[in-house]
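[INFO] parsing input record for Fungal pheromone STE3G-protein-coupled receptor
[DEBUG] input buffer:
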Amino acid sequence: MSMPLPVFSVNPIAALIGGIFAQAFLQGISVVLVLAALYVLLKLTKAKERNWILVTVACANLVLSTIDISISFYYVLHIFIDENSTPESFILYYLTFQTWPNVTRVGLALTQALLGDFVLLYRTWVVWGKQRRGLLAIIVPGIFWIVCVSMCIVLVHKLAVDDYESVFAGDPMRWILSVLATTLTQNFICVSLILYKLWSVTTSAGGMQSQTSRSLWSVGSMILESGLLYCLTILPFMIIYSTDQSAFLIFEDMVSPMISITFSFLLAAGPGVAIL
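[DEBUG] output buffer:
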């Protein structure tokens, strides 16, 4: 017995084309920001202060987002060339998530998100001091990160192996929303810890009058902006995924370059942030 076809609020073919164009546009912005971030990390930062962890993650984001958009183009071409007999066949192919392009793209996006979460965890450790106190500060967000890694592995395995009728209901939906909620919680905790540490240092240094205090708050505000941008990427993704499948056709293509943009945006701000 075949599953009933869902009702899309917009033409799914138009949504798919709109999604790939939006992804291509954002990928262009992502490439520019990654190159700017690498320029800051490698050229504007002193050799002894270069952070090779950030360089590696920036390059990894560029590679992963490029692979993602390549698979997206293949996916679209395959749909229109091989699955174009009827609108029903197009929708059924889209809903059949147990295909290597879909599973691979989920894995790529989750890997990017985990890399970004790891960098934020690393920044929290640096801000709190690379000592025992710093390790104690990141215990809770570190546990969230480990849990998120485990959940991502299980999620990708389930999507690749189990035969689900839809990823918009039931077990897949619960796993996806749980992963997103976990990464959001970890980001919120890390940003809060960083801002609290910067505030406490500024207070002990005599307020905002000193140059050190102003520099710390400048860095803290950029970290906050980057964290908020990430949250403003994930929250709409969760809402759209839960409510509108046709809009999700567009938004899912935008996630990978948006993660890269969120990460590189902070690094491109300047050497003072790049060494943090």
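[INFO] The CA atoms of residues 95 and 166 lie 6 Å apart.
[INFO] shutting down worker
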